[in-house]
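ok trying again, last paste got cut off:
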Amino acid sequence: MRILTRRPTVRVETLAALAAMYMIALGNGPWWSAVSAGRAWTDPGAWLFVGACFVLLAAAHFVLLALVSNRYTAKPLLALLVIVTAVASYYMQSYNVLLDPTMLRNVTRTDWHETRDLLTWGLAGHVALWCALPLAVIAWVRLEPRPAVRAMMFRGGAIAAAGLLMVGSALVVSRDLTSLMRNQHELRYLITPGNLITSLARNAIKDARSVAGPRRTVGGDARRMVSTAPPNRPRVFVLVLGETARAANFSVLGYGRETNPQLARLGLVTFSDVTACGTSTEVSVPCMFSPYGREDYDEQLIRNSEGLLHVLRRSGLAVWWRDNQSGCKGVCDAPGLDYRKLDASVAPELCSGDECYDEILVRGLAADLEAVTEDTVIVLHMMGNHGPAYHLRYPPQFRRFTPDCRTAQLRECSRQAVVNAYDDAILYTDHVLAEAIETLDGAADRLDTALLYVSDHGESLGEAGLYLHGVPYSIAPDYQTRVPMLMWLSGSFAADARVSADCLKAHAAEPLSHDNLFHSVLGVMDVATTAYRPERDLFAGCRAGTVSLARR
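nice, full thing came through this time. structure:
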C-alpha cells in the first residue's frame, strides 16, 4: 500500500519525453498506417524504418515541449496536449481527415451549432479511454525542483541529446522518408500533435499579417448602367448559397436516384461542370464572392478586400442576406446591407431549439418580396447537407431513401445508409428550391425574378475511406470540388436583363467555377465597374443576341 501511495518524483524532461512517446506511438494511427502501407513486417527493413520514424517524431516533439515547459507549466500543457491529441486522433480515424491549416481554420471559426453535431458519445468514450492513463500519470507524479542554473544546463543537454537522436534517425531513413514526404506531402498533417501546433501557428501568422482597418476597395467606380428600355418593375435576383451539396448526387445532373423530382419539372438551366473554389466553407465562401477567385487565389488578398456584395451596394442596389447557417464568413459586412439570421419567430413549426429546417428561408423570402420596392439582390444561406449529422437536415416526411444513417458517427452506419441520409437531405433541398421558385413566380405580377443556386463545396461519403470535406485542394477528390449550380429565370426577368434562357441551356455543359459568380451577378444586374471581367460572366455570351457562353 505504501508503494501505491508514494508519489514518484521526476524531472520535467522525463515527463515530457514520456508524454511525447505516448502521443506519437498511440495517437497517430492514420500516420502509422500511411507510412507502413505496402511494407512487409517480415522484412527487418520495415521495422527499422518504423522504429527510426518513431524516434525522429518523438524526439522532435520532445524538443518542442522542452522549449516551452517548466515546473509550473508542464502538467497543464501536457494534459491539454494529451486531450487534444485524443480528440484529433478520433476525428482523423473516424472521418479520414487531414488537420492542415485550412481544416484548423474551419475548426477555430466554427460555432456551437456546427460543433455540437460532432460531439458524440463515441468521441467521449475514445477520449476517456485514451486519456485515462496518461492523465493519471501526469497528475500523480511530482516534478523535481532544481536550481535555475542546474535546470537550464540539464534542459540544454536533454534538448541536445534529442537533437542528436533526430539527426541520427533521420539519416537512417532519409532516402525512404524524403521520397515518401515529397510524393505525399500531405502526410505531414497526419502527425499529431505536431499538425495541430504547426497549423495553428501558420494561421496565427496569417491573421497577424492581415491588414487592419478598412478592406481594400473593389469596384469603387460601380454604378448601374442606364437601360435603353423604359423603366420596368423591380428586378429581384435571389442567390441561394448551398451547403456541402455535391454535384454527383443531383439527379438533374445525371445521378441515378431521383433526388430532384420537383426541380426536374421546372425547366431549369443546369450547369453540369462547375468547380468550387475550395473544399470548405471557410475558403469557398470568401473566394466565390471575390473578384480574384481560385484562378488568382490569394487568401490574404481575398480576406482583406471587398467582395461582390460591397460592389452591389455601392452601385445602388438593395442587398439582403438571410441566414439559416452560422454566418457569412465576412462577405456580408457591406455598409447598408440588410442581414438577418432567421429563427423560430419566422416559423416555429420548422424549428427545434435554435436550429431550423431550410424551408424557413422560403417563409422569409415570401415576406421579403412584399417589401421590395427597388432592384434587389437577396442571398439565402442554407443549412443544406451540413454534416456529419445529415439526418438532422430534413423533416421526417423526406426520409425516402432508407435505412438512413441516424447518427453523426458515420462509421457506425453502413456506407449505403450514409448515402441514403445524404440523398434525403438533397431531396429536401430540391423541395426548398422548388418552393422558393414557386414563391418568386407567384410575385410575377409586380416583380421580375430569377434564382441562382450554387453550393459552396462538395462532400466525401466514404469513397476511398474519406468522409466529410476539407481535403487540401491539390489532392481533393472531385466529390469535394464539383458542385451543383442551377438557374431559374422568369420570362420578364429574362426579357428585362436581355438574357436568353435557351442560349444558357445550350452552353450549360461548358466548364464553369465559383470564379464566374462575382462577374455574372454584376453582369446580369447591369452593374458597370472596372472590376467586372466579361470573360467570366456566364451570361455575357447569351445577352443582346450573342450566342457563345463566356468561358472561365
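cool. Residues 215 and 304 are 5 Å apart (CA to CA). The domain at 235-510+538-542 is CATH 3.40.720.10 (Alkaline Phosphatase, subunit A).
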